[in-house]
Structures are given as C-alpha cells and as structure tokens.
Amino acid sequence: MNLKIRLTILNFIEFAVWGAYLTSMGTYLAGVGLASTIGWFYSVQGIVSIFMPALMGIVADRWIEGQKVLSLCHALAGLFMIGASLYAYSAGDAVQFAPLFSLYTLSVAFFMPTIALGYSVAYAALEGAGYDSVKAFPPIRVWGTVGFIVTMWVVDLCGLQATPGQWMVSGCLSLVMAAYALTMPRMPIKKGEQKTLAEALGLNAFKLFLNPRMAMFFIFAMLLGVCLQITNGFANPFITSFGAIPGYQDTFGVQHANILISLSQMSETLCILLIPFFLSRFGIKRVVLIALLAWVLRFAFFGMGNPGSGVWLFVLSMIVYGVAFDFFNISGSLFVNQETDESIRSSAQGLFMMMTNGLGAFIGTVVAQQVINHYVFFPQAAGASGAEVIAGWQTCWYIFAAYALIVAVLFAVFFKDGKKPDKASIAH
Questions:
Q1: Is the CATH number 1.20.1250.20 carried by domain 3-187+201-427?
Q2: 50-99, pLDDT tens digit by residue?
Q3: Helix (H), strand (E) counts: the chain
Q4: Could you tell me the residue ranges of all domains in the chain?
Q5: Helical spans, DSSP H, in 305-428
Q6: Less CB within 10 Å around the terminal CB: N or C of the chain?
Q7: 349-378 burial, b if ≥16 CB within 10 A, otherwise e?
Q8: Residue 236 burial (CB < 10 Å; 0-12/13-18/19+)?
C-alpha cells in the first residue's frame, strides 16, 4: 500500500481514539455528580504529558523502534480505558471518583505519548522515503482530524455522549491502533555510538533551552498550552446547560452539542492544509500570533453566543478553532522538527508535548475549573436559575479570552522570529 495512505490510516485511528470522549466526557461527569472534578479529568492529561511523552520519546530514540513503542502504548491505553468504561457501567449513578479517575489516568498516561510518537513515526517514514515532511505531512495529518470528527458523531448519534460508552469506543479503537502501528515502516534507533549518560537517557533535548530562541518558544508553548483543553472540557457542558432555559431546550445545539462542536474539527481539516503556505510566507512568529488571536476569538464568541438566535456566534467560535489549534500545535511540531538534530527529534517532540499538553494544559484546566466552579457550578448547586448559570459561563469565557490576549501581546514583544523557512532550512 502507498506510504501516504498507510500514514493517513494511522492518523485517522490515532485521533479517532481521542475524539470518542474528549469533547463529551464533561457532560457524562456532570450527569453523575462529578461536575466539580471535570477539570481533573482533563488536567491529568497535562500531568502525564509532563513526563510520559518525553520518556516514551527517549525509549523510541534509544532502545526500541518507535512503531513498537507506539503499539505498546496504545495496547495499554486501550485496556485501561475499557476498564474505566466497564467500571462506570457497573457502578451506574453510584460511580465513585477514585476508581474511575485511577483507571482513566492510567489510560491517558499511555495514550498521550502516542501523539508525539505518531508524529515521529510519520516524519521518519516520510523523510526515509525522500518526502519533504513540511509539505507532505499536513495533508496526511488532516485525516486525523477527520477520524476525531467521525467518532464525535458516532458517540453523539448513538446516544453515548452522556454515558461511559464513549470510553468503550475509545478503548476498542486503541487496541485496533496497537495492531496497526506494528505495520508501519521501522523507525531506526541510534546504536553503537559512544554516549554520555545524558545522551543515553535522551536528555539532550533539554539542551534546546540553552538556545534563547528555542527556550522562549517552549515557554510560550506552555503559556499557550493553557488554552488547549478548556473548550474540550467545558464547551459541551456549557452548551447543554442552556437546556435549563425553556426557550433553548429543543435547539439543535442543546440536543446535539457534540455535532455542533465538531464544526471545530471540520475547521481544522481546512486549516491544516494552510500551514505550509503560512509557515513559508510568514514564519513561525506570525503564525503563532495568528493562533493566539484566534484563541481570543474562540473564547469571546462562546461568551457572546447561545444555541438559539446567537448560534451563529457559536459557529464562528468553531471556525476560528481550526486556526487556534492547528496554527500552533501542528506548526509548532514542524518547527521543532526543523530546528532539532535527528538524533533527538523524538525527545524534542516529547518535550514540546510536555510544555503544551503537559504543564500548559495542566495549569489551564486546573485554573479553569476553579474559575468555572466559582462562577457556574457553585451557584448552580446553590439553586441559581438557568439564566444566572449562563451569565456565570459568559464571565468565564471572557476571562479566558483576556488571558489569551495578554499572552499574544507578550509573545509579539519577546519572541524573536528567525528567517522565514526556505528549502534549505526545511531540509535542516
């Protein structure tokens, strides 16, 4: 089979695993009385991303071929996710936080490294076949977003977005991915060289912090990472909360929040294809600035919209999400790949994941949970009306928009752009 088609299938399944639960999990948790812990289920993805992607990247760089590490991680992630689903079904409305959270945490601990590993496997395969990864990878990666959308729709239309069935779908797909990853081209590891202890452990990636430009990029990667999981965790509960107001109960958004939110991922599929043009024309600094401004609009449109007459603002929020997410996550991954030596690329990708989906996402979801508890969940528990709850949500979205704007201004001032990528630098 053609290499690009094989990598397309790889990306499709990889992100289908995540799409099955990432945007709807909060609604299930709120429905079983765990609304105040939603942030922990999302922030734990950040906690494990602080060390697991880097650790698995080191293993792939130094000891075990990357496609085998990818397979092992998916196998373990899938088994633990199926375990979480079975426990939640058996417990019903009496589900307890500790056992559910423990099984879920073990699953995401092995899933989160697979994103960076998948990128590394794809880059190595493409470059080994003589392709330019900056040009060849985005059209492949876009099918990962399609996979994410497909499982979002499946979970919604099958009535699973408020049930633990979403985790069963994810776990089963992870096991499929574990088998498929073994069919990928071998990702060579570096052997036979004299290495220092730091090199043997893959710690060379941290030397990137000695480069002022790369250090600044990773710091801002963490600050921007704060935004990444907020809407994934809270957009679905926010939109469905309009159901407490009679005028919105039967709107499409309240009834099918996941499908409405999937417009965000549809936007991604288009925006990914724009990345090679924008990176080559404007450079990494301007591309990240565009992403940050898109985050401002993402949050602000949520604050201004509703699933009735203001649904067009929700739609605009979904459209700008593609720019917000891809112009940073995918462009950042490509930037790191271009700026690092091939001997530490898996470790460098793991470091990038640690700063964004690790430290950044952890801080963002924990703080966002506290903000939303204060303005939404605590008043709701105290008997606030539906309109008062929605007003609380709006305040939260405006706070998040203000944060993204501040980070954008700081990035514009402090990050120094290099030369725009040309063929020589891309081949670096």
A1: yes
A2: 778 778 877 877 788 889 999 999 999 999 999 999 999 999 989 999 99
A3: 18, 0
A4: 3-187+201-427
A5: 311-339, 345-353, 361-372, 378-381, 386-414, 423-427
A6: N
A7: bbbbbbbbbbbbbbbbbbbbbebbbebbbe
A8: buried
